Amino acid sequence: MLAVGDTVLIPKPGHDKCHLWVLVTAENPATGEVIIVNFTTERPHSDRTVVINPGEHRFVGRPTVVFYADARFAPLAALEAAVNQGIARQHDPLEPALLKRVQDGLLNSPWTPGRIKTAFMAARQEGRA
Question: Which fold has domain 7-125?
Answer without folding.
Answer: SH3 type barrels. (2.30.30)
